Amino acid sequence: MKQVGIAELKSRLSEYIRAVRRGEIISVMDRETPVGQIVPVREKSAFRIRNPAPDAPPPNRLQLPGPAAVKMDVVELLLEERQGHR
User: Fold this and answer.
1) Tally of domains in the chain
2) Does a structural domain hold residue 25?
């Protein structure tokens, strides 16, 4: 994997795009910190979108679970957590 600084990437963008077309991955660095990658586009998507099963109910008709039976005060729990960070 090639690493390139932002200034060099800007000045030689076409060259790096050609490298990506050949299948290389370019890591973009801001000083010595990696901030992004330029990767080739895959021909086939990793995700498949499919239609729901014919007997599946429509999403607006799904039965949602009831509220959780929790015996605590969420506000008190939040305040306790925030006090611990001070």
Assistant:
1) 1
2) yes
> For 39-79, how does the pLDDT look when each residue is reduced to its tens digit (9 = 90+)?
998 877 677 888 889 998 888 888 888 888 878 888 888 88
13 domain-assigned: yes
Structural domain boundaries, residue 8 = 2-38
d(CA 38, CA 24): 9
**Is the per-residue pLDDT at 85 higher than 70?**
no
Query: How far apart (Å, rounded) are the C-alpha atoms in residues 17 and 15?
Result: 5
The C-alpha atoms of residue 86 and residue 75 are separated, in whole angstroms, by 17
**Is residue 19 included in any domain, yes or no?**
yes
d(Cα 76, Cα 86) in Å, to the nearest integer? 16
Q: What is the DSSP letter of 60?
A: G
